[in-house]
Input
Amino acid sequence: MNAETSDAPPTSLVDRTVVPGDTVLDLTAMANQTIKLGAGLRQDCDTISVMKAGKLRLSKPNKYWVESSHKRYAPCVEDTVLGIVVDCKPDNFLVDIKAPTLAFLPVLAFEGGTRRNIPKFEIGTLLYVRVVKANNSMNPELSCVDETGKASEFGQLKDGYMFETSTGLSRMLLSSPTCPVLEALGKTLSYEIAVGLNGRVWVNASSPSTVILVSNAIMNSESLSGVQQKIMVEKLMQRLQ
Amino acid sequence: MEQRLANTWRMTNNEKKFIESVLASDLRVDGRRPFDYRDLTIKFGREQGLSEVQLGQTRVMSYVTSQLVQPYRDRPNEGTLSIFTEFSPMADPSFEAGRPGEFAVELGRVIDRGLRESSAMDMESLCVVVGKSVWSIRVDLHIVDNGGNLIDAANIAALVALLTFRRPDCTLGGDDGQELIMHDAEVREPLPLIIHHLPIAVTFAVFGEGNIMVIDPTHKEEMVMGGKMTFTMNSNGDICAVQKAGGVGVMSSIIMQCLQIASAKAADITSKIKHAVEIYNTERASQKANHYLLEVANQVSLSDVIMKEKQVENLIEHLAYMPLDELENSNQGDALAVDTRTKHESISQGRYTRAFVRGPANWDPYSRGISSRLATSFPTLPGFWCVLLGPKTFLLETEETTLLHAENSLG
Amino acid sequence: MEYVDSLTGFRLDGRRPNDMRQIRGEIGVVAKADGSALFEMGNTKVIAAVYGPREVQNRSQQVNNQALVRCEYSMANFSTGDRARRPKGDRRSTEISLVIRQTMEACILTHLMPRSQIDIFVQVLQADGGTRSACINAATLALADAGIPMCDIVTSCSAGYLSSTPLLDLNYIEDSAGGPDVTVGILAKMDKVTLLQMDAKLPMDIFENVMQLAIEGCKAIAQYIRGVLLENTKQLECRRGV
Output
């Protein structure tokens, strides 16, 4: 019995649903160990407690976080998101990324960006961007280039249709191997998709009916398992024919 | 400035362009055809006159209340109907708390006009004393979730609530025959409102140059549309109200086409509402029978005459099977039978407990210290109790404490 | 009550069913405003004043790609028979304000004046039925006077159905008879209906007739308003000595 407790993971709540206020770890019992905390957890003296309802995850050896799905987005560095231009300032574009505050997109944060070639965006333009700075005391900062300074698919998304889902669904869509709903749809239809971690999804295809079908299939898959998703898509396809 | 930008729900140009361009080829973003209505769900509350309507994502609650008031001077023999709308910021961030905004007023007025001007409700039947007191019916519409097309959803909610509402019966009586007597729901069955026909609002959104029409617009479509038209019609094909408050111009021939479509939809929705209300009423009636049964059983157990177990049971059974005859659906009947049985058990249990707890008929608050067991053993000496209240109580208390001690030692 | 004499076919005020009351429009009645007009339909008398396009007063309401149009409808205390004090912003006037605003927005080319504001004030000086029609006609004249770009002229007229006869341009007595009252606003040149309000029960075919009658009325008013505007422009040219 004693041996088992020492070897077992420090918390039995891993992969279980937790709610705010739950105590996950007791630090007094685990001296000389480093643990890393992710979203939804906080240290409260000698205990680690939960801040958000969701599933507790553990990545061996010592990373803990709470996985949950929300409609709002908490910015995090290196996330790729879809933003809407809200206002244009001399130095920055103000972009709505569903975060608590509007994000800044510096006018120079484009490939080969100089004062001479500042892009022009109308209000309401949809952008695929990367979060480069995120902390509580400042507005998040975005960029339209990757680390190497290349544009690599960041920038304005033209045409197509954008809809809002939850952060959980967008994470599922981005997971590998390819999410079942996208895979099933891709078998018969060709479409373009951009998923932002803030829960926004953009879809484009040559025919508008494909766009409508794909977007509705994705919105419907919010609470379906992998198999259910496949069945749902198959049914949709049958109705189409 | 920043605050303003952060608080509104916004739409991308992509969405706007897509919604408009797709409509040109008769498609809508939620997969409907231009003249498809969204799914309509009607729910009822525990109380009568409360309804909740869900139209796609839109949810509206409606609650009807009544009150006796003085009639308006120009209409001394008619009741009044007033509609109040509440657009709380909960439903949509663009709604502001406080005074109703322009659209809340418009919604209320459109529904009000549809009901009132087409004389859908018999207002004269709401009169109690001419010029003195009439019933004032108040409909409160509460928008819970704004998914577009609030007028139609609110209109249906208001109708359903009015259809299920019951007002207490009241008559004139008393010594001089002028006193208002309000009859309790148990004494006289509450009365429904007299509604001649159901004016159903059907809303169209207008796009483009006024040549593209779409029925029952969603929230997103409402952000893009150039204007909207609401036709309030009943199932006979009569037009009860029309509201097209500006916006993109439409050819009169298209308006007539829309009226035809609206008329068909109105008939469809009317049958849905009637069906839902009918189911609710049957359920309510059977519930009421159960309720009545419970009341009777309670009265039986409270009465001084002690009924024999057998008799009570007979009575209960008799009452329980009464409503069954009225039910056509055999399945429902089964469920109900089970239901009444469980109730009947609880009732008979209740009867025992009640009889036990109740103690002597002339229970005295001062004899607080007496255990019920002791009290029941002295049920026929009220006078004696009153006279010797002080010492007797004391005595009884000591007795009880000793008893308690005894029990404790046993336990 | 007999609203149409069964023998002569005349209405209470001596009009025929298809007759409109006398209409009169006058431009430039409020010197302070950027544009103003007075419009009379029989005894109904309405004054309209337009300010703008000007800077948006409440910055939070500013629209980035078009002008913000606001409208305020009010009835003077002395406008009706009983001289009651009218509370501002009751439900009826809020709704009429909304209706007038959206109707005028249909003809104003708002996208040409982004980030600006246009205020329309209409006041009923004398009410004798058809006030919202008169308000729209007055507002059209006032907007034209203010030189605000418009794609067409909006005019409005009402029609009713009493004693089984469609009647054009109801007066107060006919209006309060409790019969149907159809108010129509059209974009005159395009021949499109932008405003349509109706209450009281009416079968569909009769509704169509009444609506058509109101549309005819609107067209007649449009003709008149056109005349007034032409006259006014000519006078202005004269004054400049062209």
The longest strand of chain C covers residues 44-55.
